[in-house]
Amino acid sequence: MPPRRRTAPAPLHNEAARLADRLQAVGYTKRDIARIINRDPSLVSQFYTKNKGAAFVPALTHVLTAIQSAGITDTTELATIAAQHTTRRTTAAGAKARVRTKAVLITSTGTGTGRAGAQAIASGSARLRPLIAEAARQGLRLAFTVRLAKGGYLHASGSRTDSPGIRRDVIQRADHTEERSYGSATTGGFAATDFAQRVDQTGGDVTTAVYQWLVETSRIRPEAHITHLEIRTWRPR
């Protein structure tokens, strides 16, 4: 007789995953939970797949209590509560562990760059939010480059009306997408404070904030989809 195959037992969810399940049961998405704990949505998924999230158990517990006992439902208010109960992991020596995310570095001259690819775009380019927030705090200028399907743009390639910026020319890709830049040190770019406010109005979704600006200023079609995004900052002279 052929050997019987054993069915692997379903993985046991850790406490962070169970708390996330309870939050989803009352109407919050994984993206909402990520915003509440001020992390990327991919980390919430790793509660289930990689047994992560132990550091957020106290925060999520207090958030659930606030929802169930105090009737607080606004994600911004819940994020404030979560921040008060989130502690950093410690190393074996007792020191605070480093956060394993891409560092957002703005130099003394105000120069900083952040990029988001397809996966980060889908989750709102959350990694770019700290860069924009810090640029706003320092009163810096900002420019960005977007990449999307050629047919998504309203103006022809190279149009001055569309204002391709720092790279001067439009960059065309083999997959029928184009990169176009908006703003530069030469043209003055945009006030980072203005874009930080736009990002705040979208609940921290950088992709949506940039998309809305492009639609409002008649650069792209409403059905267009951003596939890549780059943010650049500098200090005005």
**Major sheet size, sense and barrel closure:** 6 strands, antiparallel
Q: Work out the radius of gyration.
A: 21 Å
Distance between the termini: 81 Å
How many separate helices?
9
Averaging pLDDT over every residue, what do you get?
A: 83
How many beta-strand runs? 6
Shape label: elongated
User: Order of helices and strands, N to C?
Assistant: HHHHHEHHEEEEHHE
Low-confidence stretches: 7-11, 99-103
Specify the structural class.
Answer: alpha+beta
Percentage of helical residues? 25-40%
Q: Which percent band covers the strand fraction?
A: 5-15%
Task: Summarize the structure in short.
This protein has 9 helices and 6 strands.
Question: Mind explaining what this structure looks like?
Answer:
This protein is α+β, with helices and mostly antiparallel strands and 237 residues long. Helix content is 37%, strand content 13%. It has nine helices and six strands. The protein is elongated, with a radius of gyration of 21 Å. The model is unreliable at 7-11 and 99-103 (pLDDT under 50).
List keywords for this structure.
single chain; 237 residues; alpha+beta; 37% helix
